[in-house]
Design a protein that fits this description.
By secondary structure, this protein is an all-alpha fold. It has one domain: Tetracycline Repressor, domain 2. It has 8 helices and no strands. The longest helix is centred in the middle third of the chain and has 22 residues. The model has no long low-confidence stretch (mean pLDDT 84).
């Protein structure tokens, strides 16, 4: 999926990539929907493991900044991975009537970020002027927009600065 995009993902392509019989691949994944579900699960699992590295003991601002730095580093180091994740979200959205995947992806990300942000605030006795789910969702909106802009022109020097400026504005709005 990272090399050729979501449109190229088929059970047959997975079998070929894995050097496995097509019947074996079909046994594991009966449809493209099941393949996409497995890809989403792997992505969300990596998000959960990333969450454990965020120093929530340093407060809400530092936690949000650390998440922002981690997300941006991942974008710069593995842009193909992020592009695949965006394609997966768009594919799931396009196929929402047939697949419940679209309704799972963002809520799972929001839940994970909400846990991080609320833990950071509560561990330090901090208050936030907006709800933690809204803070998490707003953060994702900022990152998604910045990431798409970055992917369209990675050489533009201002993407990272604008991303962190918007994160800072969000934190100011949150009273942090």
């Amino acid at each position: 999926m990272r090399r050729e995009g979501v449109q190229a993902v088929t059970v047959r392509a997975i079998a070929k990539e894995a050097n496995a019989p097509l019947a074996t691949a079909h046994y594991c994944f009966s449809s493209k929907e099941e393949l996409m579900e497995a890809a989403a699960e792997a992505w969300l699992k990596s998000l959960t493991s990333f969450s454990g590295d965020v120093p929530v003991h340093l407060g809400l601002r530092k936690a949000v900044e650390q998440v922002a730095e981690g997300y941006w580093r991942a974008l710069e180091e593995e842009p193909a991975s992020l592009l695949a994740e965006i394609e997966l979200v768009l594919w799931a959205t396009r196929n929402a009537p047939a697949s419940p995947l679209a309704a799972k992806i963002y809520p799972a990300c929001e839940v994970e970020l909400t846990k991080i942000f609320s833990s950071a605030a509560s561990n330090n006795g901090e208050e936030c002027l907006i709800s933690f789910p809204m803070l998490a969702r707003s953060f994702l909106m900022i990152f998604d927009g910045a990431a798409v802009q970055y992917l369209t022109d990675p050489k533009a020097a201002d993407h990272q600065a604008m991303f962190f400026m918007l994160v800072d504005a969000l934190l100011a709005k949150a009273g942090v």
